[in-house]
Specification:
single chain; 492 residues; Rossmann fold; ten-stranded mixed β-sheet; 35% helix; binds adenosine-5'-diphosphate
């Protein structure tokens, strides 16, 4: 069957409704790109308490008013509301079960900073509810496209407790892994509540992982096809170094595991049209970029000098992102003639370290420990360089945004960073950033210094900016690759 295909896209976060990271950006953009290719794709996500019905004109769906969802030895009554992804005809359903989802944050209790204690039950119910909603809608998708551990029980239910259910006989599953480090690992006591038979939990069984229940492992075992968000990461996660304990399971499924680089949404991240930056600009006229640089520094209270480069960084403060390397070289870095701007939240240990950095280097560093989308846009526009020294990086979006804004990425060659950033060679004029291989502080510092050297030669730097801005990572290319996977699934 050549299509068009009917696809249900399921995600625990979708921008602009709920976002904690890159997954939300993907879930808000990829379905639109697939719709534009002519397929019937719809989205489902939980209805969190902070999603305003009024702001997003969510509508009741009469038929989905009281849907009964059997799970374990209980039956839940859920509802669903509906809206459209902004500026599109992609319909999104919000699964409503207030006791589980009427909370101010998707995964973590903001008061304690810890995961919600019932996350296993919450996302098991979400996954199981999605299937019952399909039944009530009388819609039988060819493919259910799942994302990360929160939806990894969908393939698991379909292949186990629902394997003889004819309603889903023609439905296949794709599981996209956005970050292997987050697996949904829980105490085995949840098994009954999430409606899975004990035999799946035998040692080495599909959901067993070192004595715990592991949602993602189950998804990897049961999904018909798998992919990650870059080709390099798809290879890396099959090795012990990057496999987070699941490399063996992934190697067993190597034939079904693909890598598809994320696209980015240039309607949101484009310096020519970005409404969140004071001055728009393009590759042919960069004057707006220099004004944005001045505006950025003024807003953050750092002295402006057009010849002093600004190094920006926007990131979750997590071990993954290379903050230990940065902390190691921070004093050497601050001895250089630069400004450093950091925007991020996350691990308290990094909050502490970088708060100190902010106090110690008041005129050189601006440390902003919060989530601030407008500031993120201004940093992309107003910085000269962008730092991503990740230990691992499934795809990474910020380096791709940076390219578009002519803000030169300095990255470690891992995952999607390796697939998108090519080291600049001043002698040939080829490349779009600066890349180092080994996860070592010395390599990071040397690479920043290499970038600063090139920066001094204005003409060469402008060439590099033009290379970067000419790159195109729009969704249309990657969306076609996803459709290729849907085709494989339908042919099975
Ligand atoms: P990850 O998904 O691992 O967090 P990505 O680079 O793929 O990393 O995506 C991160 C996304 O979250 C980007 O859109 C980035 O701009 C945004 N982001 C991260 N931290 C912040 C912050 N503190 N304030 C604003 N935006 C942020």
């Amino acid at each position: 069957m050549k299509g068009p295909y009917n696809v249900l896209y399921v995600s625990s976060e979708v921008a602009p409704f709920a976002k904690t990271g890159g997954l939300a950006d993907v879930a808000g953009a990829l379905p639109k790109a697939i719709k534009e290719l002519g397929h019937d794709i719809r989205v489902m996500m939980p209805k969190y308490g902070f999603i305003s019905d009024r702001k997003y004109t969510l509508r009741e769906v009469i038929r989905l008013k009281d849907v009964h969802v059997p799970l374990g030895d209980r039956e839940y009554t859920i509802s669903a509301k509906s809206a459209f992804l902004p500026d599109s005809k992609v319909q999104i359903y919000f699964i409503e079960y207030p006791p589980y989802f009427d909370r101010e944050s998707p995964y973590v209790n903001p008061k304690t900073g810890k995961d919600w204690e019932d996350n296993a039950e919450r996302f098991a119910l979400f996954s199981r509810a999605v299937l019952e909603v399909l039944r009530v809608l009388h819609w039988q998708p060819d493919v259910i496209h799942c994302n990360d551990w929160q939806t990894a029980l969908i393939p698991t239910y379909l292949k186990t407790v629902l394997k003889d259910d004819t309603y889903f006989a023609k439905t296949s599953t794709l599981l996209t892994i956005h970050n292997l480090a987050y697996q949904g690992v829980f105490d085995p006591s949840v098994l009954e509540a999430i409606g899975l038979p004990q035999e799946l939990f035998s040692p080495g069984g599909p959901v067993e992982f070192y004595g715990k229940v592991n949602f993602l492992k189950a998804g990897i075992v049961y999904a018909d096809l798998l992919n990650t968000v870059s080709e390099r990461y798809a290879q890396e996660i099959q090795t012990p170094e990057y496999g987070a304990g699941l490399d063996g399971v992934l190697r067993e499924r190597a034939d079904s595991l693909y890598g598809i680089l994320n696209g980015v949404d240039y309607s949101v991240w484009n310096p020519e049209t970005d409404e969140l930056i004071p001055y728009n600009y393009s590759a042919s006229d960069l004057s707006g970029k220099w004004k944005d640089k001045e505006a950025l520094l003024e807003q953050l209270g750092l002295p402006y000098d057009e010849n002093v480069p600004v190094i920006g960084m926007i990131s979750r403060l997590a071990d993954q992102k290379g903050f230990d390397l940065l902390a190691e070289i921070i004093d050497d870095l601050m001895a250089l003639d630069i400004r450093f701007v950091l925007l991020g939240t996350g691990d308290p240990k990094y909050h502490k370290i970088f708060e100190k950095v902010g106090k110690k280097y008041k005129t050189k560093a601006s440390i902003n420990l919060r989530f601030d989308n407008p500031l993120a846009h201004l940093i992309e526009a107003g910085s000269d360089m962008f730092l991503m020294p990740s230990r691992y990086e499934p795809c990474g979006l910020n380096q791709i945004y940076s390219l578009k804004y002519g803000t030169i990425p300095i990255v470690r060659a891992t995952g999607g960073l390796a697939d998108t950033i090519k080291d600049f060679d001043p002698s040939t004029g080829k490349g779009n950033g600066f890349v180092f291989e080994k996860y070592e502080a010395g390599e990071l510092l040397a690479t920043i210094k290499r970038a600063l050297d090139v920066y001094k030669d204005k003409k060469t730097w402008l060439k590099l900016i033009r290379n970067a801005m000419a790159e195109d990572f729009s969704w249309s290319v990657s969306a076609k690759k996803y459709v290729d996977l849907y085709r494989k699934l339908v042919r099975r």
